[in-house]
């Protein structure tokens, strides 16, 4: 297998196995490969949350690669399994104020770096979802659609989503008029109607077009 350069893109041929990218590093003795992903980029409220997960070599957790078809309860159970089986896992959270002060891309990369820094033991290499790699002291590969191409990134995506969903349920108790427990901050019709009626609350991202204007918009 030729050494990939910087950025992986899904090819048009046969779909690779879910450990294709992990094996590249494993074959070089880099056994602690962390998958990294974030959730919440497209939300109008709440933080962006990233997770980094290191799984044992060849550790398959059934259901991880089909998580989008699971119910929230099933996904929560899967997240528990991932954390129990992981060599290490870490979370990074960047709140609305930081998002507003920079931008969502920088905030997302910051959250991913925080998640990686929380890993103990630290990783030998990183597989990151998306096409925006960040500076890393260890080898890093960015993989567009990595959450469906890499088992380890898929695992990180699940843990990040469950963690963020739980945060948004907590925010619902503080700001019940927005119904964060249901839409988790995404720009649903109900969320937009609540913004129009009540204006933004402290966890809304004021720099986002869908939030600016509040009651007046």
Description of the structure:
- This protein is α/β, with parallel strands linked by helices and 217 residues long.
- It has a domain at 20-160: 2-Layer Sandwich (Nucleotidyltransferase, domain 5), CATH 3.30.420.
- Helix content is 38%, strand content 14%.
- The chain has 8 helices and 5 strands, in the order αββαβααββαααα.
- It has a 5-stranded mixed beta sheet.
- A hairpin with an 8-residue loop joins β1 and β2.
- The longest helix is centred in the last third of the chain and has 24 residues, at 151-174.
- The chain is globular and about 55 Å long.
- The chain starts with 19 loop residues before the first helix and ends in a 19-residue tail after the last helix.
- The model is unreliable at 1-15 (pLDDT under 50).
In short:
It comes from Dissulfuribacter thermophilus. This protein is an alpha/beta fold. Helices cover 38% and strands 14% of the residues.
Structural features:
globular, alpha/beta, Nucleotidyltransferase, domain 5, 14% strand, 38% helix, 5-stranded mixed beta sheet, 217 residues
